[in-house]
Write a structure and sequence with these properties.
InterPro entries: NTF2-like_dom_sf. This is Nuclear transport factor 2 family protein. It is a single chain. Helices cover 27% and strands 46% of the residues. The chain has 3 helices and 6 strands; from the N terminus they run ααββαββββ. It starts with a helix and ends with a strand.
């Protein structure tokens, strides 16, 4: 992969999130496998979890249960042959018109097949 491939793959994962992370979506391990490797690491805000598709499915089903949609506004991008870093705003929309906004730094690393092996994110609530 080239840095350009990593950027494209990263945007594809964000698009996958937009399509699948809402309360009406039906997720499966196969759908998660469209973007994520069999085994990967999730590291949000300094925590560190070894994950697989089954564990991530459980997590995502809980997370998306109160989510109408998610969106991202990427502001800056840095990439190499195996990873991409996005500085962005993440916007979560919940039932009843509730909106949450986060300033986020997201790093994704990919294996040779272009699947996510690392999801490292630092996020802070921000005013809308």
């Amino acid at each position: 992969m080239t840095p350009s491939d990593s950027i494209q793959r990263g945007h594809a994962v964000l698009d996958w999130n937009r399509r699948h992370l809402h309360h009406e979506s039906q997720l499966s391990e196969a759908i998660i496998g469209e973007c994520f490797a069999e085994q990967f690491v999730v590291a949000p805000n300094g925590r560190h979890y070894q994950a697989d598709r089954a564990l991530y499915l459980d997590f995502l089903n809980g997370m998306k249960s109160t989510l109408e949609r998610i969106d991202y506004q990427v502001q800056h991008t840095v990439a190499d042959e195996r990873s991409v870093v996005f500085s962005m705003r993440a916007l979560l929309y919940r039932p009843g018109g509730v909106e949450e906004s986060f300033e986020a730094m997201l790093m994704m690393a990919f294996d040779a097949e272009g699947k996510v092996t690392l999801w490292r994110e630092v996020y802070l609530p921000s005013p809308r």
